[in-house]
Amino acid sequence: MRCSAAVRSLLPLSLHSPAGPAPSPIHTSALPLAAELEAGDALHALLSTLPPSLPSLFPCLSLLSRRLTPHSVADALLCDALPPASRIRLFLFSALTPRLRSPLLHSRAVVPILLATDADAAMYDAIADAQAAGLQPPTAAFEALIFAHASAGRHHEAVEAFSRMEGEFGCRPTTFVYNAVLRVLVASGGAVPLALALYNRMVAAGCLPNRATYNVLIHGLCKRGTPVDALKLFDEMISRGITPNVKTHTILLSSMCNAGQLKEAENLLHSMEDKGCPPDEVTYNAFLSGLCKAGRVDEAIERLEALRHTGTFVLGLKGYSCLIDGLFLAGRYEEGFQCYMEVLEQADVSPDIVLYTIMIRGCAEAGRTNDAFAFFDEMKEKGFTPDTFCYNTLLKALCDAGDLDGARSLMSEMVRNNVVLDIHTYTTMIIGLCKEQLVDEAMQVFDGMVEVGCHPSVMTYNVLIDGLYRAHRLEEARMLFYKMEVGNNPSLFLRLTLGANQVRDSETLQKLVESMCQSGQVLKAYKLLRGIIDSGVVPDVVTYNTLLNGLCKVRNLDGALRLFRELQVKGFPLDEITYGTLIDSLLRAHRYNDALTLFQDILHSGGTPSMPIYNSMMRSLCRMQKLSQAINLWFDHLPRKYNLLAQDEVISSARKKFEEGCLHEAVRELIKIDQEYGSVNSCPYTIWLIGLIQAGRIEDALKIFHILEESGIDITPACCVHLSKYLCLEGNLGAAVDVMLYTLKKGFTMRRYVGNRLLCSLCIHHRRKDAQALAWRMHLVGYDMDAYLHESTKGLLYNQ
User: Fold this and answer.
1) In sequence order, which residues have a C-beta less than 8 Å from that of residue 142 and are 6 or more positions away?
2) d(C-alpha 583, C-alpha 604), whole Å
3) Alpha helices, DSSP H only, in 118-153?
4) pLDDT at 14
5) What phi, psi does 368 have (nearest 5°)?
6) What is the pLDDT of residues 419-459, one digit of tens each?
7) Is the pTM value of this prediction over 0.85?
8) Span 771-793, pLDDT tens digits
C-alpha cells in the first residue's frame, strides 16, 4: 500500500522518495545529527496528525524508516503528547524493522503506555492490521502486553494475551514470553499445576528453558509447599547443563527451611561454597531465619558470630529483622528488644516498615500493647505508611487482650485511611468476637466480608462454626458447614462446571490441566483453576473435628460416626484428634466395641494411635475390670513407640513377669525401658494403679505407688485420692498417711472429704497424736485447717 499525496506533504522534501524502488537504508552511524533530528520532527508530525488506524500509517513509517534510529523511535514512544494508539503502532513497526529494533529500549517505553491508558485493544488492532498487511506479528508486542498486564496485577489478561498470541495470531512464543507467563501463573496463586503443564509444552515445542525458567518454577513449587518436587526440577536443570545461580539456591534453601528440613538446607549451603557459588546476604538471612523459626535461636546466633569472624557476612537490616523475629517467636522478648537497640546504634542501619511491624508484634505478644502502639506512632512519624499486615498485628493484640472497642476503632481507622481489610483482618475480628461470645456480631462481620468480595478462609468458617456450637446454635452451625462444603468444594465445582464426574483429586486435576494445555486451551485451564480458588475454601480437618466434637457433645454419636465414615469414603485425611474425639466419646457412652473398631482402623491403616487414644482405651478397659487387656494393649504399643521388634528381649522379659503375676516387677522393667529411651511418662502406670484399686487389688496398687515414687515419676492426685480411700477402708492407715504426706510434698491440695476421712480414721483407731501431727503438717504447707476440718473432725482431734 503506497503513501498518499496528502501524507507525503507532511514530510520534509529531503525525505520524499521518487517512484520506483526504495533507496537502500542509511546506516545509523553515517546519519548526520541534523538529519536525525529532522526525521524525528517529521515522525512526531506524522504521529500527531494522522489517525492511528489509518491503513497507510505503516507505509508512511516505512518511508521515514531509512532516516530513523532506535533512539529517535524511543524518543517518540516516550512523548506523552502523542496519541497512545499511534505510539503503539510505532512500537510495532520498530519491532518489525530489524534496523530499528531495540527490544529492551522500546519495551520499557511502550509498557507505561499500556499501563497508563489500558490500551491493549489498540495493540491488538495494530497487530491485526500488520497481519492484514502480510506482516508477521512480532513477539515483542505480546511480551509487552504480558508484562504490562502482569505489572498491573491483571493475571487473567496476561494469560489471555499469551493464549491469543499463538492461537489467534500464529506467533510462536519465545523463551522470554514463556518465562513471563510462568511468572504470572506462579504469582496468581493456585495455578502452579498450569505453570508445570506450560513448561512441559514449552519443552515439547523445542523452546529451550533457561535459568530464569527454572528459577520461576522452583519458586512456585516451593511456595506451594512441595520442596521435594522443587528439588527434582533443580536436578533436571543441572542435567540440562544449566548452572543454578545464587538465586536458585536461595529459593530452594528458603523452602527447605520453611519445611523444617534444616539439615538439608545446611548441606545445600555448604554445596554452594564447594561449587564456587558463594552464598550472598539473602541466602545467609534465609538460613538464619529458618533456624530462628525452628526455635534454634542460639544456634542462629552462633552461626552469625562465626560468619562475622570470617568477614564474609555483615549483618544488615534484614538480618537484624530475622534475628529479632526469631527471638520473639522463641518468647525471648527482652533479648529481642536489646537487639533492636543494637540496630539503633548502627550508623548505616535504620528501621524499616518490616522491622517496625516485627517490633509491634513482639510488644503485642509480650503483653506490652502500649509499647506496640508507641512503635506504630513512631513509624508513622518517620513517614512510613502502615500496611494491612501491620494493622492486623495491632488488631490481634487488641482482640487477644479483650479490648473489642479498641479493635472496632482500629478497623474504622483502616477504612478511613483506605487500608485494605483482608481475610486476616476479618478473621481476627471474628475470633475476638467469638471469644467474648458475641456470635451475632461475628456473623455480621462475616456477612460484611462476603459482601465486599473477601472470601472467608477455612479458619474463618472453623471459628464461626465453633462459636455457634458453643452458643448451642447447632442448626446454624450445620447450615454454615453445608454452605462451606457444598458451595466451595473444588471436586463438586469441577463436576458442575465440566458437566461430568471427572475430577476427584489433585492428580486427576493435574492431568486435566496438562491435557488442556497441550491442546492450546491455556486460558481455559487458567479460568478453571481460578474458578476453584475464587469459589472459596474447602473444609479442612479442623472443620470436621469441630463438627464431630459438636455432635459428640450433644451425644449424637451415630451422626458423628456417619460423618466419620463419609470422610473415610471420600479419602479425607483424618488426624489423631478426629479419632481421639470419637473414641473418647464412644468409651464414655460405654460403646467399647465401636471404639475398638476405630482403634483397629488406625492400626490397619499403618498408623500409630496417639498417647491420649491409648490412655482413653486403657482407662475404659480398667473401668470394665479388664486390667490385663489394658496392660497387654500397652505391651503391643511399645514396639511401635520405641521402634523395636515385638520379640525384643527387654519387652519380652517385662511381659513374661506380668504373665507370671508379678506386675510390680514388670512395671520396674518398663520404667527402665522408658528411662533408657528418654521417654518417661506417668501414663500408663497411674492408669493401671487406679485399675488395680478398682479391682480391689490394693496391695498391688500400693507396690506400684512405691515403685513410681522411688523412680521419681509423678503420681497424679486422682491416684492418691483413690488409694487413700481404699487404704482407710482396709485399715492400712500407716500407708494412707504415707500417701497423704506424698501429696503434701508434691503440693497437691486434697479435697476436704479426703483429709477429713483420714484424720477421723486415725482418731477412731486410737492414733490421735498421729492425726494431730498430720493436721499440723497440713497447716504448715498452707491448708487453712479451721476452714478445712469438719466440726466432727475437730471434735475427734482436739476434745478430750
Assistant:
1) 161, 162, 165, 171, 173, 177
2) 16
3) 120-132, 139-151
4) 43
5) -100, 65
6) 888 888 999 999 999 988 899 999 999 888 878 777 787 78
7) no
8) 999 999 999 999 999 999 999 99
Unique residue bearing C-alpha cell 482407710: 728
CA dist 175 and 242 (Å) reads 14
Query: pLDDT band at 569, cuts 50/70/90?
Result: low
pLDDT of residue 772: 93
d(CA 493, CA 519): 22
Alpha helix (H) residue ranges in 643-767: 649-659, 663-676, 685-694, 698-710, 717-730, 733-746, 752-764
The pLDDT score that the predictor gives to residue 1 is 39
Pairwise CA distance, residues 368 & 515, whole Å: 55
Interhelix angle 541-553/576-588, nearest 10 degrees: 10
Which pairs with CB-CB distance under 8 Å and at least 24 residues apart come from 572-579?
Answer: 572/541, 572/544, 573/541, 574/541, 574/544, 575/541, 575/545, 576/609, 576/610, 576/612, 576/613, 577/541, 577/545, 578/541, 578/544, 578/545, 578/548, 579/609, 579/610, 579/613
Percentage of the chain exceeding pLDDT 90: 14
Any residues with CB less than 8 A from the CB of 390 and at least 6 apart, and which?
353, 356, 357, 360, 376, 379
Cβ(72)–Cβ(40) under 8 Å? yes
Q: For the chain, percent helix, then strand, then coil, each to nearest 5?
A: 75, 0, 25
User: pLDDT: is 333 or 64 the higher one?
Assistant: 333
**8 Å CB contact between 106 and 94:** yes
601 conformational bin, left if phi > 0, alpha if psi -120 to 50, beta if neither: alpha
CB contact at 8 A, 68 and 32 = no
Query: Would you say 194 and 526 are in contact if contact means Cβ atoms under 8 Å apart?
Result: yes
User: What one-letter code names the amino acid at 535?
Assistant: S
Distance CA 278, CA 261 (A): 21
* pLDDT confidence band for 150 (50 / 70 / 90): confident
Is-contact 563 544, C-beta < 8 A? yes
Mind listing the pLDDT tens digit for each residue in 646-697?
A: 667 878 888 888 888 888 898 998 888 888 877 778 888 999 999 999 899 9
What is the DSSP code (8-state) at residue 206? T
- Cα(729)–Cα(726) distance, integer angstroms: 5
pLDDT for the residue numbered 494: 40
Q: In this structure, what is the dihedral angle of CA atoms 122, 128, 129, 134, given to the nearest 10 degrees?
A: 150
Task: State how far the Cα of 217 lies from the Cα of 230, in Å rounded to an integer.
Answer: 8
- Torsion angle (degrees, nearest 10) of CA 345, 347, 352, 357: -10
Please give the grid coordinates belonging to residue 139: 513477539
Indicate the DSSP class of residue 789. S
Q: How many other CB atoms are found less than 10 A from the CB of residue 730?
A: 14
Calculate the average pLDDT of the chain.
Answer: 79
User: How distant is the alpha carbon of residue 652 from its chain centre?
Assistant: 45
The cell 468409651 sits on which residue?
587
Per the CB < 8 A criterion, the answer to whether 297 and 326 are in contact is yes
Q: How far apart are CA 63 and CA 412, in angstroms?
A: 61
Mapped onto helix, strand or coil, the DSSP state of residue 333 is: helix
Range of weakest confidence among 341-350, 409-418, 737-746? 341-350
